[in-house]
Amino acid sequence: MSTHAATAPAALATDSTSSSSAATKALIIGLAGLAVTAAGIALSPNKHGPVMSYLVGVTYWTAIAIGMLMMVMIHHIVDASWSVVIRRQWEHGLAAFKWLFVLFLPLLILAWVKPGYVWPWMDLHHVLHGSETVGNDVLYQKKSGFLNLDMFTGMTLAFFIIWVWLSARLRKASFTQDVDGKASWTTANRVNAAMGLPLGALTLTFAAVYWVKSLEYHWFSTMYGVWFFANCMRGALCCGVVIMVWLYRRGDYKGILNTNHFHSIGQLMLAFTVFWAYVTFSQYFLIWNANIPEETFWYNLRELNHDGSTNQWWYVGLVLVFGHFVIPFCALLSYRFKVTQPIIRRIAFWVLTVILVDMCYNILPALKDAHGDSLPFLSINLLWVLTSVIGIGGVCIWAYLRSLPTTKLIPIRDPRIGECLTHHE
Amino acid sequence: MATPNYGLIATFDSPPDLYHAAEKVRDAGYKNWDCITPFPVHGLDKAMGVRRSIVPRISLAGGITGFCTGMSMIWWTGAYDYQITVGGKPLFSPMFAFPVSYELTILFTAFATIGGMFFLNGLPMHYHPVLKYDQIKRGMDDTFFIVIEARDPRFNLANTKALLEQAGGKEIKELEA
Do B42 and A335 touch (CB under 8 A)? Predict the structure, then answer.
């Protein structure tokens, strides 16, 4: 084992100059994306579209960051060895949380300045389809203890405080261990994980309910948080693969990663592909089977117009069935695909793209025309989704790249590092 | 019988010894041979030149069979053999056939995997010539063995013995068939 550690790249500190120039580039691209999004909001006659697209972007990247947080904690709670070197990259990814909070603030401020603009239930005078107002709506009145602006604000602040706090604790213990080598940091992180996993599960569920599901507050689904969790995990695993291949090609991870690391992370990608399908199908199937209007309307919005014709979201749903499940599932069954770097990276990019489509599918049909039909998928809003994702993604990648050179490339003094470097060899 | 014995068995003291010996036997081109170890030795497959098992393909075939069985069973019972409308639902829809198909996919995959593994390993096997070797029980404790079978086309008593000796094998014995 010690021989492996000795043959690992001598520096073990990432090339800081190239990282910082890449970080600057990411920040510039991110700010440009945000600027274009802001211009889109300012110049659009109907600002709903770009604002909702921005919500898609924030939710997408927050989901990936949450997935990374959960992966780090799961690593600690099960005392995993294979993922020690990859865990370090997720720890760097957690640096994005505070910036995600900053990027969420505009939506929070908008909720106070113009209540009901994004989440209709915030405005009691908002007229629902059918000439009822939110304030007079029995369903709202029953849910108003949960769905009110104070709760929304307090909960959103609590989510980010918990995520930033957990990330800081996990990062500090891991990074300090590089310096002093104390095994007690590993046990400290085990405690952090035991405490953080239930907190993470609760916060990500409530975040999904408040930010996304409450766009249609009439709807019921107990699977929603689990659906969101599945996307979080898939996003984090795919980002992990992209980073692994990137660092391997750059030379940093040569001598550190072997095929078994790619096999292991690929197996988890396959497992969460099935998990996503199981959860998403269950949600659809139970609603389809019970066939009661309180629940079916949510899918009807995503299949039909009021005159009974099929709308574009029906095809987006099919893209999800095949693109988010069938294709990645079949591809990930193959051992060769999982361990061949260009192929597994391509699968990872594909899944990252489809997660974005899934977010669009869940958020954008809340935009409706005068008949109450969902606005089509193919519209100018896709451009704002793209600029938001690039903008927020640029900032997240900048945060990652800025954190990357501040520590050793891998946790060199983790008690399981030897086991990890010789994973199944 | 052309060759009276089953093959040759050689003893090794440690996993690295066995590992490097396995590489030599592999490079000498032998096909019908095996290592006996008290615990799994990581990387030994590669050192022996063993390819990935075809069990996953058998599993896949089992899974596809299970899925199709589930779908056609629900179609057969609900839409063909005994047509009855339940809860205003169509006579057949993949939607409600899916849970059954999904379960049968898993069940048949498990059967195929276990069955395929048993078949490829020649299990159940109640007798194996190496069991006659008086030291074989140590292979479950602290000793490592390489067995080269006489049916291997490259097998030649003198040369194979020399190869095992050169690879560091001790107590090289002939095994009765």
Answer: no
From A336, which residue of chain B is nearest by alpha-carbon distance?
Answer: B52
* DSSP summary character for residue A117: S
Residue A372 within a domain: yes
Q: How many domains does the structure of chain A reveal? A: 1
Taking the C-alpha atoms of residue B22 and residue A425, their distance in angstroms, rounded to an integer, is 15
Q: How far apart are CA A389 and CA A396, in angstroms?
A: 10
pTM: 0.90
A149-180 vs A84-93: helix crossing angle, rounded to 10: 130
Distance of CA A82 to the CA centre of its chain: 23
The boundaries of the domain holding residue A86 are 34-421
Give the confidence band of B138 by pLDDT, cuts at 50, 70, 90.
Answer: confident
First to last CA, chain A: 10
* B52, B56, B98 member nearest A285 (Cβ): B98
- pLDDT band for position A4 (cuts 50, 70, 90): very low
Residue pairs between chains A and B whose CB atoms are closer than 8 Å? 21
Best mutation target among B44, B64, B74, B98 (most A Cβ atoms within 10 Å) is B98
Q: What is the pLDDT of residues A253-296, one digit of tens each?
A: 999 999 999 999 999 999 999 999 999 999 999 999 999 998 99
Separation of alpha carbons A403 and A98, rounded Å:
13
Q: What is the per-residue pLDDT for A16?
A: 63
